[in-house]
Design brief:
The structure holds two protein chains of two kinds. Chain A is mainly alpha-helical. Chain A has eight helices and no strands. Chain B starts with a helix and ends in a 6-residue tail after the last helix. In chain B, about 55% of the residues are buried. The chains are: A mainly alpha, B mainly alpha.
Chain lengths: ~170, ~180
């Protein structure tokens, strides 16, 4: 049964994809293109491209898209998306339960002393990974970056407003 | 507004504008959940991200689960998670149904040429505010820079640093005589 297969495959993808984002791509490709042969390599590349121009986590985007393409029904999307999200939701609920029970425990508090600077580093790494030729295509990209940084850091412009303004400017300029 | 509807709609908004995936949602969650709604305190936000990073799957989903659970346990987590996922689900479904050709997305692509560098700027601002909120000072600044370099350039998995940090925090505090900062 295809819906069950989609659910199980994406459950597996969701379960083994620490770090989120593009870290999940090789795993998705192996499962969807190589093992199940639901998509060709070029169709998979299309999904990556679509994910880059749509909001939301890439894992969810791929699951929704592949679920529909394979079955041609909304149910395919539903079961694939449910599968990819469920492991993280279940594990996160267990972590939350543990955290709120033991957050005043000395060892947990001490662990967070170590975790805080590391998390800052992880967000910084996400920023470094975005500084590439796909993001900075020409000198205008650098101007957009500088203006956006000035607007958010100095004037605390809301991220949604900034994204909308940047989108409109991009549409006009490029 | 109904509490659950409010939780749903805040995360729906976050889900709809999280472009680039992963940490790109950090600035938006900070603006909505920390600054505007005050559902999470500034210094608690770094801890939230640490927990979100400890579970597999998208950071956006994990953060939604945490905030929802904190507000109203399982029921809360259900509404925030649904809100975070639904926008991408609906948009991708529409694309899969109607625009199978990439070239239909050319207008969107040109908008994104400007959005991408703007997202880098948003994350840069978040890095600054997160390091302020986690009260980093002096030599402690080496840690985030070293971690960032290892993850971004050496492609070492983040989960390794999460485990090392939890252990390292305990060793560090034990050496300081177990006193709290």
């Amino acid at each position: 049964m295809i819906y069950l297969e989609l659910f199980i495959t994406f459950f597996k993808i969701g379960l083994f994809s620490f770090g989120g984002g593009y870290a999940m791509l090789p795993l998705i490709q192996t499962e969807v293109v190589d093992i199940n042969q639901w998509l060709s390599v070029s169709e998979f590349t299309d999904i990556v491209a679509i994910s880059q121009v749509t909001p939301g986590p890439i894992a969810v985007n791929s699951a929704t898209y592949i679920g529909y393409t394979v079955t041609n029904t909304v149910f395919g999307s539903f079961f694939a998306t449910l599968g990819v999200v469920l492991p993280s939701v279940i594990i996160m609920l267990i972590i939350c339960n543990f955290f709120f029970k033991f957050k005043n425990n000395k060892f947990v508090e001490n662990a967070f002393v170590g975790l805080r600077p590391v998390v800052v580093g992880l967000v910084l790494s996400a920023m470094l990974l975005l500084i590439n030729k796909e993001t900075f295509i020409d000198y205008k990209s650098i101007i957009f970056f500088a203006l956006a940084f000035f607007a958010t850091y100095k004037y605390k412009i809301h991220p949604i407003l900034l994204t909308l303004v940047a989108g409109i400017l991009g549409y006009i300029i490029y | 507004m109904n509490k659950y509807l409010e939780m749903f709609s805040v995360f729906f908004k976050i889900g709809a504008f999280t472009i680039g995936g992963g940490y790109a949602m950090v600035p938006l969650i900070e603006a909505e959940v920390v600054d505007k709604k005050k559902w999470i305190e500034k210094n608690e936000f770094v801890d939230t991200l640490a927990l979100a990073q400890s579970s597999p799957g998208p950071i956006a989903v994990n953060t939604a689960v945490f905030v929802g659970f904190k507000m109203d346990r399982y029921k809360g987590a259900f509404f925030t998670t649904l809100g975070a996922i639904l926008p991408s689900f609906l948009i991708i479904l529409a694309i899969a149904m109607f625009f199978r050709e990439i070239k239909d997305l050319e207008a969107v692509e040109s908008a994104f040429k400007a959005i991408r560098p703007a997202v880098v700027a948003l994350i840069a601002t978040s890095v600054i505010s997160l390091s302020k909120n986690s009260k980093l000072k002096g030599m402690a600044f080496i840690i985030p820079i070293a971690v960032a370099a290892c993850v971004a350039f050496l492609k070492i998995t983040p989960i390794l640093f999460i485990i090392l940090a939890a252990i390292g925090g305990n060793i560090y505090m034990a050496k300081k005589g177990g006193t709290k900062q």
